[in-house]
Amino acid sequence: MTDARTPMPRGLFGDDVLPLYERTATQLLDDLRAAAARPGDRLPSERALVERYAVSRVTLRAALAQLESRGIVRPSSSRGWFVAELGLLPEAPAASASAGPQVQGFADYAQANGLTTAGKVLSAAVRPATVYEAEQLRIAPGADLFDLHRLRFLDGLLVVLEHNRLPLAACPALAETDFNTASLYATLRAADPPQLPRIADYSVEARHPTPREIELFEIEETMPMLVATQLTSNQESRPIELTVQVYRGDRYRFRASITNQA
User: Fold this and answer.
1) pLDDT at 127
2) How many helices (H) and strands (E) does the chain have?
3) Cα 17 to Cα 111: distance, rounded to the nearest angstrom
4) pTM for this structure?
5) What is d(CA 200, CA 241) in angstroms, rounded to the nearest whole number?
């Protein structure tokens, strides 16, 4: 989802509100500096790093992908990961009040706010992209598209019905991942090459629920639904995700900061 709230000053909350992959990236960078690592040094194996930081391989790869995007480490297809440059970004810059909305996955948002998540996959399949989907995602009509329908829960409460569509070529692992438990954005970050959600076109509208939504949400037909449509692009400004999210009107609020740049 897109969190459009004004960013809080750095340091207001502890590091434990950050997504696990970001905390892992910070720990790994601290360890490299403590070991006086130099450009060209090879990192320990992924298995060794998973054991050291007590995280999953998906989380570790997302952490490595973040450090790669900052120019700190680089991968070799057959030899593992290597130090690129430790002095490029010693600290992440403090967020300014004009930083604008940030692209977050559902799991990232929940973790940052101390909430537990759960999911229920309604359908997951690879199918040909329609002409509309191909235009939005800048792929060829008929190209393989990963199509995912899920129910998403926060602290045991059903919040959103989500429909995700992604080009399979961007992350072939999508077709083999169990999204009852896995994070979509963590899977994208762990892709080879990593797919890092960077910017999203986001719109929200209100409407009455469909008969299917009434059944799934166990609501009355008078309950308003908020429908968010999001087209997300990666670090290369290439579209990687077309998503429609249907929220119960009493369990979702969209906030935005509007500024005058003149």
Assistant:
1) 97
2) 7, 10
3) 7
4) 0.64
5) 9
Across 125-143, average pLDDT? 96
Nearest alpha carbon to residue 22 among 30, 82, 191: 30
On whether the CB atoms of residues 81 and 66 are closer than 8 A, the answer is: no
Instruction: Map residue 231 onto helix, strand or coil.
Output: strand
Q: Each residue of 69-124: pLDDT tens digit?
A: 888 888 877 778 888 866 543 443 333 333 445 566 777 777 777 778 889 999 99
> How far is the C-alpha of 38 from the C-alpha of 85, rounded, in Å?
7
Q: How far is CA 96 from the centre of its chain?
A: 22
Cα(259)–Cα(262) distance, integer angstroms:
9
Mean pLDDT of 191-213: 90
Which DSSP category does 208 fall into?
Answer: P
- Give every strand in the sheet of 239-248, ordered side by side: 117-128, 144-154, 157-167, 239-248, 225-233, 199-207
When pLDDT is averaged across residues 40-51 and rounded to a whole number, the result is 88
* Residue 62: Cβ-neighbour burial (10 angstroms; 0-12, 13-18, 19+): buried
